[in-house]
Amino acid sequence: MHNLSHHLKDAPVSAWIGILIVIFYAVLALGAPFFAPFAESASVGKQYMPWASPHYLGTDALGRDVLSRLIYGARNTVGIALVTTALAFTLGATFGLLAATIGGWFDAISSRVVDVLMAIPPLIFALLILTITGTSVIALILVIAILDSTRVFRLSRAVAQGILTMDYIEVARMRGEGMFWLIRKEVLPNAAAPLIAEFGLRFCFVFLFISALSFLGLGIQPPTADWGGMVRESAKLISFANFATFQTATFGLAPLLPAGAIALLTIGVNLVVDWVLHMSSGLKE
């Protein structure tokens, strides 16, 4: 805790901006039912109402409050992306560390399976599998987690292989320490910094991937609020935008609201990841 407070005290402005953005999204996602003025899928007015009280960002084509759907979209999109990234890391890091530590046939077979999966374009593969299995949340999480775990496998395996050549690993083996002890006590603590930074980057990729699938209609399904789906639903309004009046000008801004929410969270997470990478590298300003 003392080290964390010390690092936070010395954190640059960019890191603090990223931390505040991430905290803002986390609070918004956790408190969505309290912050949203209306229910997630309730039709509370006429379609495309202007930005005015009580609909501060207007309504959509079904008369649902846009601000409420943006807030619930934070909970749905970010929550599913976080669960997917955690599952991808559990699978990828576990098999990557085991492959590096065991070696031999296990390493060879695991690496070839990962090579095959990485050779297939992830978006095309996800579209194919989700078309076959259906677009449930469980299927979405499993497909993206398996695809993304291949990247985590490659990183964790490479990092672990570098650590396993160190002298203290040989000393531990000579003492008779087992494989799982080596992974838990020696490999994982020394690989933590790059893996934590990679978790942030993977979260961004998964988050954007889910939004892209939702934009294509194979991600989080209506009436569940999702930022990628909201961009798709409001994209057609751009052609009706007219900046002569405020009411018609908001038509052009409608798809930019969820897109801006996606971009802002991505920037915030990347700022935090850059800071973590800088700390783990040991470099000084």
Automatic annotation (TrEMBL):
Cited Pfam families: BPD_transp_1 (PF00528)
All copies of domain ABC transmembrane type-1, residue ranges: 74-277
Annotated transmembrane regions: 15-39, 78-103, 123-147, 199-220, 256-277
GO biological process: transmembrane transport
Entry keyword annotation includes rRNA-binding: no
Lineage top rank: taxon: Bacteria
SUPFAM superfamilies per the UniProt record, alphabetical: MetI-like
UniProt entry keywords in alphabetical sequence: Cell membrane, Membrane, Transmembrane, Transmembrane helix, Transport
Membrane protein topology class: Multi-pass membrane protein
CC per GO annotation: plasma membrane
InterPro entries assigned: BP-dependent_transpt_permease, MetI-like, MetI-like_sf
Cellular compartments annotated: Cell membrane
PANTHER family reported in the protein's UniProt record: OLIGOPEPTIDE TRANSPORT SYSTEM PERMEASE PROTEIN APPC, PEPTIDE ABC TRANSPORTER PERMEASE PROTEIN
Similarity comment: Belongs to the binding-protein-dependent transport system permease family.
Protein name: Peptide/nickel transport system permease protein
Organism of derivation: Yoonia ponticola
